[in-house]
Design brief:
Helices cover about 0% and strands about 50% of the residues. It is mostly beta strands and about 130 residues long. The strands form two sheets. Strands 2, 4, 5, 6, 9, 10 and 11 form a seven-stranded mixed β-sheet that branches. It has a four-stranded antiparallel β-sheet with strand order 1-3-8-7, with no helix packed on it.
C-alpha cells in the first residue's frame, strides 16, 4: 500500500507563493495518476490538480488555472504543487492522493483516488 506525505505548507501573504511536495513510498509511484485536493473549514474537499503517470498531461480546477501548476519527478517518487498569486480563498488543508488501480482518470473525482496523505495546512493572510 502506498504511503503519501505532504510537506511545504505554511503561512503566506496574499500574492505570495508556496511549493508543496508529496512524497510517496511503498508502491510504484510512476504507475499512479496523482492529484491534489484541498479542504477549507466547513467546506467539502475539492479537486485542485491532477497529473498523468508520465507527467505529460494535467488537469486543473478553474479556480487555480494560471496560478497553480503540478509536476512530478518519478525518479524521486515525488509530486509538487507550485502555487503562485495566492489569495485568502486558497486557505485550506491540501491533500495529495493517488489512483493505484488499473482504471485511471485525470478528472477530479475524489472516489477514484484510493490513497491519501494526511494533509498540509496552507494559510493565506490579507
Amino acid at each position: 500500500q502506498v504511503q503519501l506525505v505532504e510537506s511545504g505548507g505554511g503561512l503566506v501573504q496574499a500574492g505570495g507563493s508556496l511549493r508543496l511536495s508529496c512524497a510517496a513510498s511503498g508502491g510504484t509511484f510512476s504507475t499512479y495518476v496523482m492529484g491534489w485536493f484541498r479542504q477549507a473549514p466547513g467546506k467539502v474537499r475539492e479537486f485542485v490538480k491532477s497529473i498523468s503517470t508520465s507527467g505529460g498531461s494535467t488537469n486543473s480546477a478553474e479556480s487555480v488555472k494560471g496560478r497553480f501548476s503540478v509536476s512530478r519527478d518519478n525518479a524521486k517518487n515525488t509530486m509538487y504543487l507550485q502555487m503562485n498569486s495566492l489569495q485568502p480563498e486558497d486557505t485550506a488543508v491540501y491533500y495529495c492522493a493517488a489512483q493505484t488501480g488499473p482504471l485511471k482518470t485525470l478528472l477530479g473525482l475524489r472516489q477514484r483516488y484510493d490513497s491519501w496523505g494526511q494533509g498540509t495546512q496552507v494559510t493565506v493572510s490579507t
